[in-house]
Amino acid sequence: MKKIVTLALVTLVTTPIVLLADMDRCVSCHGVDFEKKALGVSRVVKDMNESEIKEALDGYKAGKGGPMKELMMAEVNLGVDTDAMSADIYHESRTKGFEEPSDEFIFQKRLNVRTLHNLKENIQNAEKKDMKKISTQIKATAFNMYAYDKALRTKVSFDEFKPKELTKKDILQTVTHVKKCVDHSFSVDEMVECEVEFFNLAGNLVKNEEKKIKAKSLKNKAPIFTGEGAVDIHQYLEKK
Ligand code: HEC
């Protein structure tokens, strides 16, 4: 039991987060609303739907594409989650003008998507005897969301938690839904709605943990990726 829990926490803390804050890199070739054929070669991304975009990105990730695929391979191989990226691109291509979400929002979104993705895989692979570990992982994830998201802290009401028995299917369904919800959120408010849903799930699995969660949230440090391409987000992190 200990092993998996530790693993999950390590994943939470060390997964490198590449901050692709600058969709403006794309603008130079694809146009402000992805309305151009990039370098006269690409399709007009604005005319593509989300799954076509994801397919193209997955292709680049796997080294496949058109004559100028190398260019795009460099973009996607920065370690992006193509689910989240295609949702971003689709949204951006349908929003007039260029509206860049804050670095802090992008950081939080990518962190959540990755974490929920790992959690989902763990749940899918879990057998009945593993469900206690899963519950611990869900709590750990909830701790993290709570620690890093100020907006969430104002929305969570511990009084409303009603611990109850949940099946693996219930849990998987909620986690899948929350991941999709986060993937498709483009503002702090939208994302907080998803996080609240996740928190309610965590609340169903725990009893009287308000103090623990709050105390832990004060100790937690965000995992910060500082390699090439990273954006300095220290300025956004609250001094605790
Ligand atoms: C230097 C120019 C350039 C930049 C910068 C660039 N792209 Fe591209 N993009 C291209 C080219 C050229 C293609 C077509 C590549 C090929 O031959 O497959 C392409 C293809 C694509 C496609 C698939 C379209 C198709 O034809 O199937 C998507 C989606 C895309 N880019 C998104 C992005 C995003 C998002 C960014 C920014 C993070 C970005 N691109 C940055 C030049 C660029």
Q: Which class do the helix and strand fractions yield?
A: mainly alpha
**H/I helix tally:** 11
Return the average pLDDT rounded to an integer.
Answer: 75
CA-to-CA gap between the ends? 32 Å
Q: Let me know the largest β-sheet.
A: none
Work out the number of β strands. Answer: 0
Cα-based radius of gyration, to the nearest Å: 19 Å
List each distinct ligand once: heme C
Shape: elongated
Helix percentage range? 55-70%
Please give the domain count. Answer: 2
What order do the helices and strands follow? HHHHHHHHHHH
Proportion of residues in extended strands? under 5%
Detail the poorly predicted runs.
Answer: 1-21, 222-233, 235-240
Describe the structure.
By secondary structure, the protein is mostly helical. The chain folds into two domains: 137 residues, no CATH class; 71 residues, Cytochrome Bc1 Complex, Chain D, domain 2 (Orthogonal Bundle), CATH 1.10.760. It contains eleven helices and no strands. Helix 9 packs antiparallel against helix 10. The N terminus and C terminus are likely disordered. Heme C binds next to helix 2, helix 3 and helix 4.
